[in-house]
Specification:
By secondary structure, the protein is an alpha+beta fold. It is built from 26 helices and 17 strands. A 6-stranded mixed β-sheet has the order 12-14-13-15-16-17, sandwiched between helices. The chain has a 5-stranded antiparallel β-sheet with strand order 1-2-3-4-5. The relative contact order is 0.07. The model is unreliable at 440-445 (pLDDT under 50).
Length: 583
């Protein structure tokens, strides 16, 4: 694929990396850089850094890095051209009229979205048919109005193996397109035969934040299994990354999201006026979904069912949210299994009171543990207070004082003992956490070590090479003087030599060597490595003297490597001296 430097340069200037990323990550300025919590892995201490000067970013926690195109590729799950197109559209730019790049992937994506949109229309229209009346009655019996049914695009899949496929093929969609979108399946007996994936189910279209229908969920109307059938992962849909009704909730203007367990809970909540409700797609909340939630709201209120499975899911979700920056509250009620039932039986005001009385994560944990022990007995009190100390080991000094005072008063116990035990657990937890973080770092490793296997063996040379690359990228005019003394073939590590060659080849032609212009020459991991290398320039004075120091180290280390690699016993002393002096 080939995009001109002029086009990429204009795209970079219009799609400023700091402005673009700030719509996904809460960035805070720190001198010449901006920092925030990484959207690609769970963390509570910001390690995600944006460098406006070089229009690059790098996360020191997970090693993800690159330019604005790389960021959009990763955050929106797009390929390179689609990420460029995404940025161009937002910047009001037209893609170049050039047939030199392969547009197949984007055409397939657009075609799949068209197929999903047409399928959604078909399913919705079926509600008005004689066969679909059973689906319409289901929604009405669940208390939904016609307006809600229409707003959410709800529908019905007929009890037929070919109702949808026949309709779609009449609209010009091929069998391959329907199978790729998971709207149809191939027969195991005859691969040329396809049949409808969704049959005799009420249908819930899944819509992304841009308004595209990307998938479907289907629910049976009887006790048959599986109760729910969902679209498998496709080119436009990744179950673990999406949230149901986020397209509506993000427009609510509220800084809190209510996380429900299923489609109907969410729809009932929206109909009742709680338009900030969403649900995870699939059977359980994923870390990607938790990260997505924390990007759209600073507070998450979990409203999982009050039954056994719901409480198990709640416990798991709380563990996942601990790795995000979001504040978490838990909604508790005893008036029904789910909020849909609460709304029907007790009304909107009851739900409002449940939300108003939501317990934060610590309060919920304390209440939950108290239910497990008989605190009227000495043994029950002792065991409960031990769990209290563990829970309070995760709070700050002020919160510890407040909760300890409250519990001490409730149980006629010493506040100081609770605080003392909590601090013991704090110390223990801190040691465990540090060990875990160290192990994770050791396991993950530095991205430069991963891509440059020679780096640890020739560490001094590798560091000098990285510094030289960083300085030259930041100061292209230095290249002419640098190349009088050293070239890529003089580098001790092959990987850094290849990076330096890619950079110097472009600079020699008078072209920019920033990351945005290296996409065609380097892999995504290699671009992350270049982003890491570029961060070095922020710690240097960026002078030619520093370049010379790096060059001297590289040449010296190269000579040592040559001597080490040469079998000195096989040559005479005179030959050895000649060899050494010539190098």
């Amino acid at each position: 694929m080939a995009l001109s430097d002029d086009f990429l340069q204009e795209l970079r200037s219009r799609a400023d990396i700091e402005s673009t990323i700030s719509s996904y990550v809460n960035l805070k300025r720190a001198g010449r850089i901006s920092k925030g919590l990484c959207p690609f892995h769970g963390e509570k201490t910001p390690s995600f850094t944006v460098y406006p000067d070089t229009q690059s970013y790098y996360c020191f926690g997970c090693g993800n890095g690159g330019d604005v195109i790389t960021f959009i590729k990763n955050i929106e799950n797009l390929d390179y051209i689609d990420a460029v197109r995404f940025l161009a559209d937002k910047a009001g730019m037209n893609m170049p009229d050039d047939n030199s790049y392969d547009n197949t992937s984007n055409k397939r994506r657009l075609r799949m979205l068209e197929a999903n949109r047409e399928a959604a229309r078909f399913f919705h229209s079926c509600l008005g048919t004689k066969e679909g009346a059973v689906g319409y009655r289901y929604f009405k019996n669940r208390g939904l109005t016609d307006e809600t049914i229409r707003n959410f695009g709800l529908g019905f899949a007929p009890d037929s193996f070919n109702a949808l496929t026949n309709h779609m093929m009449k609209k010009g969609f091929t069998k391959e397109e329907l199978v790729s979108a998971n709207l149809a399946r191939r027969s195991t007996k005859n691969e040329s035969h396809i049949y409808d994936n969704f049959r005799n189910r009420v249908i819930f279209p899944i819509i992304d934040v841009k308004g595209n229908v990307i998938a479907f969920g289907g629910r049976v109307l009887d006790d048959s299994k599986p109760k729910y059938l969902n679209t498998s992962d496709t080119l436009v849909y990744k179950k673990s990354h999406g949230l149901y009704a986020l397209n509506f909730a993000k427009k609510s203007g509220k800084d809190a999201l209510i996380l429900c367990e299923g489609y109907m809970d969410v729809i009932a909540m929206h109909q009742a006026g709680f338009n900030n409700a969403v649900a995870a797609l699939g059977t359980a909340l994923t870390s990607e979904q938790a990260q997505l939630l924390s990007r759209y709201a600073s507070e998450i209120m979990i409203a999982y069912d009050s039954d056994g499975p719901g409480q198990v899911a709640l416990s798991r979700a709380l563990g996942i949210f601990k790795k995000t920056a979001a504040k978490v509250k838990v909604l508790r009620w005893s008036e029904g299994k789910d909020l849909d039932e609460v709304i029907k039986n007790y009304g909107v005001e009851k739900v409002k009171s449940i939300i108003h009385g939501a317990a934060n994560e610590i309060e919920f944990a304390l209440l939950h543990e108290k239910e497990n022990y008989d605190v009227t007995t000495d043994d029950g009190k002792r065991r409960y207070l031990y769990e209290v100390a563990k829970i309070l080991s995760n709070v700050g000094e002020i919160e510890l004082e407040i909760y300890a005072s409250r519990i001490a008063e409730e149980l006629s116990f010493s506040k100081n003992v609770i605080i003392s035990e909590a601090k013991k657990h704090m110390k223990k937890e801190s040691a465990i956490r540090q060990k875990k973080e160290f192990t994770e770092v050791q396991r993950t490793g530095d991205i430069l070590d991963k891509l440059n296997p020679q780096r640890q063996k020739f560490f001094k040379a590798a560091k000098a090479e990285e510094m030289l690359i960083a300085i030259v990228m930041a100061n292209p005019t230095f290249l002419k003087q640098v190349e009088k003394k050293i070239s890529s073939v003089d580098f001790v590590t092959d990987f850094n030599g290849r990076i330096f060659k890619a950079v110097s080849d472009r600079l020699r032609e008078g072209l920019s060597a920033e990351i945005s212009f290296l996409h065609g020459q380097l892999t995504e991991d290699e671009l992350s490595a270049v982003a890491k290398i570029q961060t070095v320039s922020y710690t240097l004075k960026n002078t030619m003297e520093e370049c010379n120091d790096c060059i001297n180290v590289i040449i010296s280390e190269k000579n040592k490597k040559i001597i080490t690699d040469t079998n000195v016993e096989s040559i005479s002393d005179d030959d050895f001296l000649k060899f050494f002096n010539n190098n």
